Amino acid sequence: MRIGFFDSGIGGITVLHQALKYLPNEDYIFYADTLHVPYGEKPKEEVREYIFNAVDFIANQGVKALVIACNTATSIAVEDLRQMYNFPILGIEPAVKPAVQNCEGKRKKVLVLATNLTLREEKFHNLVKSIDHHDIVESLPLPGLVEFAENFEFREEKVVPYLREKLSSFDLKQYGTIVLGCTHFPYFTKSLKKLFLEEVDIISGSIGTAKNLMRILEAKNQINDGTGDILYFKSGYKVEDKESLSNYKKLLTMLDKV
């Protein structure tokens, strides 16, 4: 059986990329709800309906585990989804805990970059409240990065001016760790590095999610010796055109260089 990966768009590829490092011989399904991307700027209940429909479709393909490779979808639906299905469902959340641990001794702040919906959710606020005992965590929504990614616009001459404008009110020297709280954002790591000090760490939850997936499958003795094959779906339809498949491969190759 395959491992499912789900996101509103191509952001989840960044999490799949990490899973392929730890579980290169598994076979995968990647489902992007491209008809409804971006999730982060839509009403919560509308997004929940999209998520449940997508996960139902993925479950019907036959998967042994599912990764909700979307911070927004995780924050508003993962607990309910776990009650509905009998296979493991993993989510991803902003890597606030390691960021705070990294910065507390350095007298530096943490900046969480995410979507509006993720940053509004109680799940995120509870996470920060449980960890941030010295009030060092700040946040900023960057919905434009999702649009850039979905339009395959990764050129620094386009991305950096947007980032510079959004960060113009921040003292960038104050931050020790930048948390990428949206799975679309790792594509823009190089652009972000142009604005912050060289020693600033830029992290996401992708590696932790991939490691957790491996641990769960090992514990269930479900590690397969497959071929690393990936089936791609867009909002319920299998992707078979050569251009789209080529674009997915390009994204995975690009992430090798980030």
From TrEMBL:
Keyword match Phosphoprotein: no
Pathways per UniProt: Cell wall biogenesis; peptidoglycan biosynthesis
Record GO terms (molecular function): glutamate racemase activity
InterPro entries assigned to the protein according to its UniProt record, in alphabetical order: Asp/Glu/hydantoin_racemase, Asp/Glu_race, Asp/Glu_racemase_AS_1, Glu_race
Active site: C70, C182
Record-listed substrate binding positions: D7, S8, Y39, G40, N71, T72, T183, H184
Superkingdom, natural source: Bacteria
EC number from the UniProt entry: 5.1.1.3
Keywords: Cell shape, Cell wall biogenesis/degradation, Isomerase, Peptidoglycan synthesis
Known catalytic reactions: L-glutamate = D-glutamate
Function description: Provides the (R)-glutamate required for cell wall biosynthesis.
Family in the record: Belongs to the aspartate/glutamate racemases family.
Name listed for the protein in its UniProt record: Glutamate racemase
Organism per entry: Neobacillus ginsengisoli
